[in-house]
Specification:
B30.2/SPRY domain-containing protein, SPRY_dom, Jelly Rolls, B30.2/SPRY_sf, 12 strands, five-stranded antiparallel beta sheet, 2 helices, about 10% helix, B30.2/SPRY, seven-stranded antiparallel beta sheet
Length: about 210
């Protein structure tokens, strides 16, 4: 008499894994990979990378340079809650943490502060200003007190609610922006402007 085929108690028969939702696959990839800056999405004439790509140093002498963060599959974020943590060293000018849309990446506007000229991104800079659309020197609204060298800065992006906020050294500062976010594909970035300024990315997290 033939034995019945199939799984039994203690069986080692291989079972095909169930397909994972795309959002979960991206979360797993982001969780498993160390956060890094992207050499292809910056101006290498003005920025120097550490060997592990977790720290960038501004080596230019004038104006700004924006460096983007590597994202799963090179795509931006269109839904979910996301958090990035940065550590700054040797802040000399008006460094900034940023969120930029796909058109900033496609236009390779890495020599610009994201918001100069027109709506190409959102920033929270070292002197405590949260800016969108306006040049830095025209922005009158203060968001918080300034942050300095050796401070930790969080970027808090909620694509479902359409809000962007920040934290400094664990203190949440509240919502900075609630317009223009929903419907965009967004990417995290940092902006340096003074020779010797350094930024290190500590973590990149997505909450399902």
């Amino acid at each position: 008499m033939k034995e019945k085929q199939g799984c039994t108690v203690g069986s080692r028969r291989q079972v095909e894994p169930l397909p994972l939702p795309s959002a979960l696959k991206e979360w797993i990839r982001e969780y498993e990979e160390e956060p890094r800056f992207d050499r292809k999405l910056t101006n290498l004439k003005h920025v120097m990378f550490s060997a592990d790509e977790t720290t960038v140093t501004f080596k230019g002498t004038s104006f700004y340079s924006t460096t983007m963060i590597k994202t799963p599959y090179g795509r931006g974020y269109i839904s979910g809650k996301h958090e990035w943590v940065f550590y700054f060293d040797n802040c000399m000018g008006q460094v900034a943490v940023c969120v930029v849309p796909a058109k900033f990446k496609e236009g390779k506007n890495f020599n610009l502060v994201p918001y100069i000229g027109h709506c190409v991104g959102w920033c929270f800079n070292q002197v405590g200003r949260a800016t969108y659309e306006l040049p830095l020197w025209e922005e009158k609204r203060y968001y918080s007190s300034l942050f300095n060298s050796w401070d930790m800065v969080w970027v808090l992006l909620d694509m479902d609610k359409g809000t962007l906020g920040f934290m400094v050294n664990g203190k949440e500062l509240g919502v900075a922006f609630s317009e223009g976010i929903i419907g965009n594909e967004l990417f995290p970035a940092i902006c340096l402007c003074g020779e010797g300024e350094k930024a290190t990315i500590i973590s990149s997290s997505t909450y399902l």
